[in-house]
Structure formats: structure tokens, C-alpha cells
Design goal:
The protein is mainly beta and 1041 residues long. It has 5 domains: 328 residues, Peptidase S8/S53 domain (Rossmann fold); 84 residues, no CATH class; 190 residues; 39 residues, no CATH class; 270 residues, Lipocalin. Helix content is 15%, strand content 40%. It contains 19 helices and 63 strands. Helix 3 packs parallel to helix 7, helix 7 packs across helix 8 and helix 9 crosses helix 10. The longest helix has 18 residues. Keywords: Hydrolase, Protease, Serine protease, Signal. Belongs to the peptidase S8 family. It comes from Campylobacter jejuni. GO terms for molecular function: serine-type endopeptidase activity.
Length: 1041
């Protein structure tokens, strides 16, 4: 019999897309994409070259043959897995192309279906052991709840015969999986051992209960990290203005299996005409339908939940998805399931939802005709109403199972409750990212039952935040144990949860914020970390030792504190206890925040203070020194004497003292006075701390200064703030002008015949070379041009300096004279956020004299600098411009010691005197801008070292290669000292900077002189001192004449 269905397309103006139905679009706008999350996908194959998946699949595995060769899938035929993976994690290429729910996540892909000779299934357990979620859009056509399987004869009993032995898989599904289904068994082990969430498609056969793999948790109640997913058609669902979803009869996919026997771990998602990856191409997309498409909607959303709450395990992710599933929907009166029973003949099951079917067949037929409204089907050349076709091909297998004890006995017509079609509801990603919504006893175990202090037996839902901070903003209710939703034959079934209320237990470090109006009836236990209550809990709350309860919410009954209770959210709000506040334990604390005019309060109906401390904590505000702060305790004031101690927490810069009563002995319990600490704002090597204390004590500070000191007083980034105020960068870059540094390089130049460019480095003063006269014996004069580069790295700053100089020299019979003009620029960036730019010009002169038995080295230099200092302290940059003058003189001795034919060794000893002058200058007006007085500084350095050179003479050129090591000791002028004051206030202070005492220099030279009297040189030098390093690079080109 041939059948052709006539389809009519109707424009659904108010229908929803799948992302709109599940609020996935809203979650994406909030920035959630599943980034950093890895999921697993078990399916047929994956096209890793497709534009949606090429950067998504981290690794893949497929079945192998007996020789170990892995299957290479045919992606034109095996298209299912790529489509599924694309729905879950497909890349977002653009808004016009389909993309995944968790488009920022990645995945591991496992092919789990044998193919021909490739019969060896991968080791799924080890392959997926590092993922958080596994999508399973696959299953087998066995339905344990009904004891049915699909066969050529239709739906029949699950009994099978193997080698003459009969057995029933549906009676023992767990045994079947453990013995005969390695993939499913590995999935079970991963859920139990690793807490991995397995998401299973419920199946596409129109059966009212999930297929075998999806329903496994009904038979083993320790299998909580497991979900069964049914399919909806988003095009058949509309949204009312009040937020209610209206589900049409076709909104429940006719192929989707239901959830009889599985309602506690099931939910539904869009799975009809889902557009995603077409693996037969590398850039196209195609539409597919099935619970296989609905499951990755859930898996992708699970990845978003994991991103937002990284501390959750698979079971808890499932709890959130189930508890937040949308229950605000209106189910249709009835729906029709198309049953695939293993035959080629479609069967249909007419399902009335949460209401008894009509007892009269004509009423049911009338419902069908209204639903399909004239749609016809061609059967054997004859057109008949589709509703009649359904009536004539009703499924009897399921109705016989379900109608044995109901009022309906009409074949192919049944009643089910809406939870048996929708499970816990419709996937809602937006609500899921707000945390738990229901504490469900049906998903807890006997191990969760606790008799806590005076509380009755309660089942506690435990959240361990594991060091993370998170917020649950949904209203959290409870659902008690419902025996009717559990199988009596299930293993690991709890036996002590009946009639118990459910409480919440917070464990682990980190902060959990609860901001909903919570109605769960068990107690709230804060065992570790912090619970910040911004909403309400209905019953008692307990704070254990070292745990913290804070917030401005409401405790509906009593609050018992053995740890820390801190009302408010550090915002002077109050925490309300509608019963008794009890505090006990020597380490227990009640912490009350205060500001200048208000404090947070613990407002309770009654107080029972047995021990512990009351502690006042100042909020990070600006406090007027010596002005008392009045504390309002309310009725708690009557219990002050019951605390062991009443304490005040001081800040970085402030002490807070109780104000004494008139007798100067007893404490006025409601007044606190802020005072400045004697050593507040202290900075080494400067009197700035004293200046800041004077400034802080003034009563005329502007709002900007007050806000800055409020932050500083409370220890917020103190070191950085003080360093920025100090702004001593202009002192720490003294090496930019340090003549001992400059002349050391120049002295090295004079030791070699071709080392002419050295006197340009760092405005160096040149010293005469003893070897130069021999090289220049035929020419009296020379010139050269020298570009240079210098890099600084200090513990306080880094910087660079570039320059160039032009030099002239003259050779005498007993000496050498050279002149130079040098230009350079430098920039220094300081760790405190400031910077210094400098432009320098230097005139240099050097002369050496050969006394035969020894050589005298000498030099002079003078230079000016133009500097711009930029600092940032509070609101705007602070700029100051100033000029500097530097002069230097050098005197020393060396001697040539000939080693063999080509080597010359020069021991070195010399002294350098430097004078540095900095003019007085004023920074532009801004908070903490300064006036700087002029600075004069003398420095004397002693140097000792050696230079070793090898000289080479060829027909066309002469060359010299050398290396040197010099130790420099500062013997006078070790500390720079300058006086400054604030522009806004006449408060002066001294700034000091300790210069480097010991410096070690080491470097290399290479020099070449050619027949045409052109010469070239390159020099590299490293300078090392305490917490500092400098690199010098120079290259010269010149000519003698």
C-alpha cells in the first residue's frame, strides 16, 4: 500500500525559533558561549573540515578492525553526528548561518557504531574521562517500562531466545548493559565515577516511555548525572503576553518518545526541522528532526551552565536544567503519536493529556478532524481524511498496557499526565544560568539525610563552590519524595526520604549569593566559605565555625551563629532575623559595618548572646579625623554585655577608638572616633609620609583628595598609590646623565686604534689611545659618525636611549686630541605609571699623553638636557618640564703590555668626577602636583679593570678585536636628595634615591681600517648592578685624512 502525505505550509506569525523557545538567544547576549568547556559527542561520524566544526573537534576516535586499523567514515552517508555536534557546539560564523548553543565550547567525538569489519568499539571510558557532558543521540528499540520491543511483527514482548535460552532484556536492563553493551556501560561508569553528565535522546518511535538507554536511571537510582530528552516543534508553539507558552497538538513532536517511568530526569527541547551541519559538504547546512536534535540543545545548554558554575558536577548540572525547565506552559487537550513499531505500516496513538479521553468514539474522531482540518492522505489511489487514516491505524500494543485500569478501553486511545510527555518541563537556558530553582528530594539519596542540631531529619542539597563565587537568583522551592515516580524494583533506591523537607548546605571556599525568595522548608547550613543572603530563606539558618553569612536578606526563623555573621553587603544594609539570633563559641563574631553617619544592623526578634565577639568594621570611606561616629545597634544594645569582647577593626592608615564617657574610664558604647596612625603612608628614603599625614589632617580637602585618601586609608593598592605620589622617577634615572658611565665607554675607545666611536656613547668624554698613533702614523686627522642604542632595565623602570654624534680628532707625536658633538633622546617608563622623556646635547673633549713608561688618560665634558616628566595619581596627568646641566672630568693611567705578536693587554685604573644640576620646576596644577627645588649633586667614582685586544694586519685592511671587564665603585655622592612640596598645599618633604654603589661592565669590540682610510667599528657592552641591567650597542663609520 503506497501512501503520500499532502503537506500544507502555514505562515506562523507568532511561532518561536528554537533559540527563542529556550531563551538561548538571551543567554548569548549576556556573553555566555560555553567558552573553555569541553563536551563529548558519541555518534556515527564528524566532519572536522566543515566550517562549523573544523576548529571545534579536539580529538576523535572510531571503531577499528581486528588488526587495529581505524575506520575512515563515509561522511556523505554518516551525517548524523556532525549535525548533532553542530547543534551543541557549532561555530558562530555569522548571524545568517546556523550555530551551536554553546558555540564557544569544543568537543571530543567518538564513533560508537560498528561498521563492516570495523567491530572493535573504542575505549569510551578513557576517551571521555576529561569532559563534563556527553551527548548521546542514539539508542536501541527496547522499552523496558512497557516490556516491549520493535520487531517485524510490531511491538512485542522483549523476550528473546539465544542458543535455546530465553531471556528478557527489559526485565534486567542494567544487566544487559553491563554484559552486552560496552558503550552504555562506559557511560554509566563515567557518570558514577567522574560525575560526567550523560544526555540521552528519548527515542523517535512514538512510544510513551524512553528507549532502554535513556531510562536507565529508573533502574539504578545512583545514576543521577543522566538526562532523557524529548522533542518539541518550536513552530507549533506560541508565547502569550503573560509569558505562558501555548503548545499546540503538533507542538509535541509526533515521533518523540514520552517519559513514563522517567519523569524525574526528563525534559523536552526543540527537535523538529533543526538546521545545522550537512557533513556531506564542508560549508552547507541541512534540516533534520528527531530527539537526536533535541538532546544537543540540552547538552549545549549544559555547557553554558558549566561555564557559569564551574564547580558543579554532572548531577548538579542536571538538577539545574530540570529544576529550571519551564513549567509555565499550556499543554494541548491531546496529541497524536506516530508509532514506529518495526513494521512498514505506521501506527498511531491518540494521547489525551491530563484528562480522560472521551468514552464515545465519535467524539474522539471529531477531535481528530478539528486537529487536521481537512488534510488528506492518498491510500491505494484513494484520497481520505488524514484523521480517518489515523483512526484506522491505531496502535494497540501501548493502549493495552495502559488501559487495563482506566475508564477508557478504546483501542489506540490513552490518557497520560503532562509530566509523562514534558518531563520536568521545557528547556530554559536563561533561567538555568540563574542556578537552582527546586530542591528535589527525588534526586537525592539517603546519604543526604541529616539530623542537624535541633532540626528534624532533613534531606540537604549540598553546594560546594570549591573556591568560586556564584549567584543563585531563582526563587528556590522544594519538591518532596514522590513514591509514584520511582520503580519499586530500582537498585540504590533511597528508603529514608519520604515526607522529609529539603534544606540547603553550603560547603567549600568561595561566595554563594542567594537572592531569590526561597520557600524550601529545610534549614540552611553554612559550613564553609561564605553565603551572601540577598533574598529570603523560609526556615532556620546555621553558621558553622569559620563560615560566613552576610547580606541584607531575611532569615525566616532563627539564626544560630558559631562562625561569622556580617549584615549587609558592605553597603550598610541590614540583615533581618524573624526569630531569635543566637551566638555561641569563643571564635564567633557578629561584624557590623559602619560609615560616617550609619551602620549595618542585625535586626532580630530576640537575641541570645552566649559568647563570642562583636566587631565594628569601617567601610572604605573618607572619615573626618577625630569626629565621632555614632553607632545604632537597636535592641542589640541591650545584649552588649553578653559579648566576650567588643572590637573595632582598624584600616591601613586609621585607628578607630571608642570614645570614653565623662568618667574617662568606661566606654561610651555608641561612639567611635577615627584617628590617623603615627606611621601612616610611610615611604622609605623620603619624608613624604609625614607630609601626607599633615595633608590628611587638613579640614579643607576637596572631594578628589577625600576620595583618594578613602581608598588609601583602607589599604587599597597602597604601594602603587604612594609610589605615584612620590614620583621619584626623575631621580632614579640619574644614570641617563651619569658621567662615570659615559666616560667608561670613552676610555675604552682610546685603548684601540680603531675604537674611535666610543666617545659618542652616552655623551662620553674621550680618552686618548696609546695605540692610535701607530695606526694613524701617516695621517694626522680623522672624523666619524656614530649612532648608538641603549636599553635600561631596573626594578623600578625600563627605558631606551638612542643617539648619534659627529667627532673630529688630531694625532700628535706624544698624544691624541679629540672633539665631539653628541645628540640623544631617551624615554623611561616607570612601574608606578609615570614616564620621563629627555633630550640631551653634549660637547666632549679628550686628551691622552704617552710618557713611554705609562699613559695618562684625561677628558672633559659638558652637556644640557631638556626633560618632561609625566605622572598620574588621581584624575588627570601631571606634567612638569625642567632643564639639567651635567659636567664631567676624568683622569687615569694605563700601560700597553705586549703579549706575543698580536695581543695587547691594558690594565686600567682611573677616577671620574661628575657634577649634575637640575633646575627648580613646578608641575601643572592637579591633585598631588609638586614644586621641586633645584638639585646639585657631586659624584666621584673609582674604576679598575683590564682590556685585552688582538690586532690583525692584512694587505687590504687592519683589524682589532677586544674584550674588557671593569669594576666601578662609587666613593662619593651615593645618595641623590631633593626637596619638594605640594602645589596645592605648602607642605614640604625630602626625596632621596640611593645610587648604584657597584657596577660591573663587560663587553666586546670589533674594528676595521681599510686602505682608503675608511674605518668601521661595532661595540656591545653589558652593565650589571643590583636589580639593574643595561645593554649598549654602537656602530661607527669614519675616515682619516
Amino acid at each position: 500500500m503506497k501512501k503520500f502525505f499532502c503537506l500544507t505550509l502555514v505562515c506562523k506569525l507568532f511561532a518561536l525559533s528554537e533559540f527563542e523557545l529556550h531563551h538561548i538567544d538571551k543567554v548569548h547576549k549576556l556573553g555566555y558561549s560555553g567558552d573553555t568547556i569541553i563536551i563529548g559527542v558519541a555518534d556515527d561520524a564528524f566532519n572536522q573540515d566543515h566550517i562549523s566544526l573544523k576548529d571545534k573537534i579536539l580529538k576523535s576516535t572510531y571503531p577499528t578492525d581486528t588488526a587495529g586499523k581505524q575506520l575512515i567514515p563515509d561522511l556523505k552517508k554518516s551525517t548524523h553526528g556532525s549535525h548533532v555536534a553542530g547543534i551543541a557546539v557549532g561555530a558562530k560564523i555569522g548571524d545568517s548561518k546556523p550555530y551551536g548553543v554553546a558555540y564557544g565550547a569544543k568537543f571530543y567525538g567518538a564513533g560508537v557504531f560498528p561498521n563492516g569489519s570495523y567491530t572493535q568499539i573504542p575505549d569510551i571510558y578513557n576517551f571521555f574521562k576529561d569532559v563534563s557532558i556527553i551527548n548521546n543521540s542514539w539508542g536501541i528499540n527496547f522499552y523496558p517500562y512497557f516490556n516491549l520491543k520493535a520487531s517485524n511483527s510490531g511491538l512485542v514482548d522483549c523476550t528473546q531466545t539465544n542458543q535455546g535460552t530465553s531471556y528478557n532484556i527489559c526485565n534486567t536492563p542494567l544487566e544487559y548493559v553491563m554484559k552486552a553493551d560496552k558503550v552504555a556501560n562506559d557511560m554509566m561508569r563515567l557518570s558514577k565515577d567522574k560525575g560526567v553528565l550523560n544526555v540521552f535522546a528519548a527515542g523517535n518511535e512514538g512510544i510513551l516511555s524512553p528507549a532502554l538507554h535513556a531510562i536507565l536511571p529508573s533502574y539504578d537510582e545512583s545514576l543521577r548525572a543522566w538526562l532523557a530528552v524529548g522533542a518539541l516543534d518550536a513552530n507549533e508553539i506560541t508565547l502569550e503576553s503573560d509569558g505562558t507558552l501555548i503548545i499546540k497538538s503538533q507542538g509535541l513532536a509526533d515521533f518523540s518518545n514520552g517519559f513514563k517511568g522517567a519523569t524525574n530526569f526528563s525534559l523536552v527541547a526543540a527537535g523538529v526541522n533543526i538546521n545545522n551541519v550537512d557533513s556531506s559538504t564542508n560549508d552547507k547546512f541541512t534540516k533534520k528532526s528527531g530527539t537526536s536534535m533535541a538532546a544537543p540543545m540540552v547538552s549545549g545548554t549544559a555547557a553554558l551552565v558549566k561555564q557559569n558554575f564551574p564547580f558543579l558536577d554532572g548531577k548538579q548540572i542536571a538538577d539545574i536544567l530540570l529544576s529550571t525547565a519551564n513549567k509555565n506552559y499550556k499543554a494541548p487537550k491531546f496529541t497524536v503519536k506516530q508509532v514506529t513499531d518495526g513494521t512498514n505500516q505506521p501506527k498511531f496513538l491518540i494521547v489525551y493529556i491530563s484528562q480522560d479521553p472521551p468514552r464515545i468514539e465519535d467524539e474522539i474522531k471529531r477531535d481528530l478532524k478539528q486537529l487536521y482540518n481537512g488534510i488528506q492522505v492518498q491510500v491505494n489511489g484513494q484520497w481520505i481524511d488524514y484523521s480517518d487514516y489515523i483512526w484506522d491505524n491505531r496502535d494497540s500494543a501501548q493502549s493495552q498496557k495502559l488501559n487495563t485500569s482506566t475508564i477508557s478501553s478504546i483501542n489506540g486511545v490513552v490518557r497520560v499526565e503532562k509530566e509523562e510527555l514534558f518531563g520536568q518541563g521545557i528547556l530554559d537556558a536563561q533561567k538555568a544560568l540563574k542556578g537552582l530553582s527546586i530542591l528535589d528530594a527525588n534526586r537525592l539519596s539517603d546519604q543526604d539525610v541529616l539530623k542537624y542540631e535541633q532540626e528534624p531529619n532533613t534531606a540537604y542539597y549540598t553546594i560546594n563552590t570549591a573556591g568560586y563565587d556564584a549567584e543563585f537568583s531563582n526563587d528556590i522551592s522544594q519538591r518532596k519524595w514522590d513514591e509514584s515516580t520511582h520503580l519499586s524494583s530500582a537498585i540504590n533506591k533511597p528508603t529514608h526520604l519520604a515526607n522529609l523537607n529539603i534544606g540547603l548546605s553550603k560547603e567549600g571556599e568561595g561566595i554563594l549569593i542567594i537572592s531569590g525568595q526561597n520557600t524550601y522548608k529545610g534549614a540552611t547550613l553554612i559550613k564553609q566559605g561564605e553565603l551572601k543572603l540577598k533574598g529570603k530563606v523560609k526556615n532556620n539558618a546555621y553558621v558553622e565555625q569559620k563560615a560566613i553569612l552576610s547580606g541584607n536578606g531575611i532569615v525566616g526563623q532563627n539564626l544560630n551563629n558559631k562562625g561569622i555573621v556580617r549584615p549587609g553587603n558592605e553597603d550598610l544594609n541590614d540583615l533581618t532575623v524573624q526569630g531569635t539570633y543566637t551566638q555561641e563559641g569563643v571564635d564567633s563574631k557578629l561584624q557590623l559595618d559602619f560609615g560616617n553617619y550609619k551602620n549595618s544592623k542585625l535586626i532580630a526578634k530576640t537575641y541570645d548572646i552566649k559568647s563570642g565577639n562583636l566587631e565594628y568594621i569601617p567601610l572604605p570611606k573618607y572619615y573626618i579625623l577625630n569626629k565621632p561616629v555614632k553607632i545604632n545597634l537597636g535592641d542589640l544594645e541591650k545584649s552588649l554585655s553578653s559579648f566576650n569582647h567588643v572590637l573595632i577593626q582598624n584600616t591601613y592608615a586609621l585607628n578607630f577608638d571608642f570614645v570614653l564617657s565623662d568618667d574617662l574610664v568606661s566606654i561610651n558604647k555608641t561612639l567611635i572616633k577615627p584617628n590617623l596612625k603615627p606611621n601612616a603612608y610611610e615611604i622609605p628614603n623620603t619624608s613624604l609620609g609625614n607630609a601626607l599625614r599633615q595633608l590628611r589632617s587638613r579640614a579643607d580637602l576637596s572631594q578628589t583628595y577625600q576620595e583618594f585618601f578613602a581608598s588609601l586609608d583602607n589599604g587599597i593598592d597602597v604601594k602603587t598609590k604612594l609610589n605615584r605620589i612620590e614620583g621619584s622617577g626623575y631621580l632614579s634615572t640619574f644614570s641617563n646623565h651619569n658621567q662615570s658611565n659615559l666616560m667608561q665607554n670613552n676610555m675604552l675607545f682610546t685603548l684601540h686604534p680603531l675604537n674611535i666611536n666610543n666617545f659618542a656613547q652616552n655623551n662620553n668624554i674621550l680618552l686618548a689611545s696609546t695605540y692610535l698613533p701607530r695606526i694613524f702614523s701617516n695621517e694626522e686627522y680623522f672624523w666619524h659618525l656614530t649612532p648608538s642604542y641603549k636599553y635600561y632595565k631596573d626594578k623600578d623602570f625600563s627605558g631606551q636611549k638612542t643617539g648619534a654624534n659627529i667627532s673630529l680628532g688630531e694625532n700628535f707625536s706624544s698624544g691624541f686630541l679629540a672633539y665631539a658633538l653628541s645628540l640623544s633622546s631617551a624615554k623611561f617608563n616607570f612601574n608606578n605609571g609615570s614616564d620621563l622623556k629627555s633630550y640631551n646635547m653634549d660637547l666632549l673633549l679628550n686628551y691622552n699623553h704617552d710618557l713611554d713608561f705609562i699613559k695618562i688618560l684625561s677628558g672633559l665634558g659638558i652637556g644640557v638636557g631638556f626633560n618632561t616628566l609625566n605622572r598620574f595619581v588621581v584624575e588627570q596627568p601631571i606634567e612638569g618640564k625642567y632643564k639639567t646641566l651635567q659636567t664631567s672630568a676624568q683622569l687615569g693611567v694605563t700601560k700597553d703590555i705586549i703579549l706575543g705578536q698580536d695581543f695587547i693587554f691594558n690594565p686600567l685604573m682611573y677616577f671620574t668626577h661628575s657634577f649634575f644640576y637640575q633646575e627648580d620646576f613646578k608641575e601643572n596644577k592637579s591633585p598631588f602636583a609638586k614644586n621641586y627645588e633645584s638639585l646639585k649633586h657631586h659624584s666621584i667614582n673609582a674604576n679598575l679593570g683590564f682590556n685585552l685586544a688582538k690586532n690583525i694586519e692584512q694587505d687590504d685592511y687592519q683589524a682589532s678585536f677586544s674584550t674588557f671587564v671593569i669594576f666601578e665603585k662609587r666613593i662619593y655622592g651615593r645618595t641623590l636628595e631633593n626637596k619638594a612640596s605640594f602645589v596645592d598645599f605648602p607642605i614640604a618633604f625630602i626625596q632621596k634615591y640611593k645610587l648604584k654603589d657597584n657596577i660591573l661592565s663587560q663587553g666586546f669590540n670589533s674594528e676595521f681600517l681599510y686602505k682608503n682610510n675608511v674605518f668601521w667599528q661595532f661595540m656591545l657592552m653589558n652593565r650589571f648592578s643590583h636589580n639593574a641591567y643595561e645593554l649598549h650597542l654602537m656602530s661607527s663609520v669614519g675616515k682619516r685624512f
